[in-house]
Automatic annotation (TrEMBL):
The protein, known as: Sigma factor
InterPro entries registered for this protein in UniProt: RNA_pol_sigma70_r2, RNA_pol_sigma_r2
Example of a GO biological process term: DNA-templated transcription initiation
Top-level division of the source organism's lineage: Bacteria
One Gene Ontology MF term: DNA-binding transcription factor activity
Pfam families, alphabetized: Sigma70_r2
Domain RNA polymerase sigma-70 region residues, every copy: 11-67
Amino acid sequence: MVEVAADRLGAYGYVLTGSQSEAEELVQDAIVRVFARRTRFEVPAQAEQYVRRTMRTMHIDRMRREALWRRVMPGQAREESRADD
């Protein structure tokens, strides 16, 4: 059951990020965040729903931070993208 949920969460993360490595990182970060705050779920499917919601929220927050960074420091954002190439 855990493997099936992990596959579904990974696929959802990939849909959000478009990158396998970013998706894996997003899944791990969301799982840590959810289970650090909540120790038990009444229904196991509830845990997956919480992780999905957390993934979506974390991804949206990251995209907003990146957009803000590009507006505030446009030259810096361009410099970093060139360094990655």
